[in-house]
Amino acid sequence: MKKVRITVMKIAQYADLMEKYENPIAHACGMKLGQSFTANGWQKPEGFCDSAWDSVSPFVMALAHGGGDFYDGWMKNPKSAMISCNDGFRPVSFLLETLAEDAE
Q1: The dihedral of CA 68, 72, 75, 81: what is its sign?
Q2: Is the dihedral of CA 78, 1, 94, 103 positive or negative?
Q3: Separation between Cα atoms, residue 49 and residue 54, nearest integer Å
Q4: How many other CB atoms are found less than 10 A from the CB of residue 74?
Q5: Residue 14 lies in a domain
Q6: Across-strand partners of 37?
Q7: What are phi and psi of 95, to 5 degrees?
Q8: Does residue 103 sit within a domain?
Q9: Residue 24: per-residue pLDDT
Q10: Confidence band (pLDDT; 50, 70, 90) for 103?
Q11: pTM metric for this prediction
Q12: Whole-angstrom Cα distance, residue 61 to residue 4?
């Protein structure tokens, strides 16, 4: 099984939606731009957001088992995917990349 690097590429925040619909919460997201995690198969990396893991884990699992080329050529690198978490107020975009056997 291959390892998969997960890198935080973009963090958005929709203040208008938050003000209109969200109950205030003290700490919604701990992800930082450029932060990187390494997933070993189905195991969620330590410190990775539980909710974001729900969004990215099916793609991580597919890449870890040699899959790729999602949606018939969507990504320039077929062994990668750009997936966002399911937070409609502050979505985070993650780049998933299959690592070479000896890389981490």
Answers
A1: negative
A2: negative
A3: 9
A4: 11
A5: yes
A6: 6
A7: -95, 120
A8: no
A9: 84
A10: low
A11: 0.90
A12: 9
Q: Is residue 11 part of a domain?
A: yes
- Structural domain contains residue 104: no
| CB-based contact 90:14 (threshold 8 Å) | yes
Q: Is the pLDDT of residue 63 over 70?
A: yes
Q: Report how far apart, in Å, the C-alpha atoms of 63 and of each of 39, 58, 103 are.
A: 10, 9, 15
CA distance linking residue 87 with residue 12, whole number of Å: 10
CA distances from 24 to 14, 19, 27, 67, 89 (A): 13, 9, 9, 40, 12
pLDDT at 27: 79
User: Where in the sequence is the domain holding 61, given as residue range(s)?
Assistant: 3-98
Rounded to whole angstroms, the Cα distance separating 50 from 63 reads 19
Domain count, the chain: 1
Whole-angstrom distance, CA of residue 87 vs CA of residue 59: 18
Q: Is the pLDDT of residue 104 over 70?
A: no
CB 64 within 8 A of CB 2: yes
Q: What is the pLDDT of residue 7?
A: 98
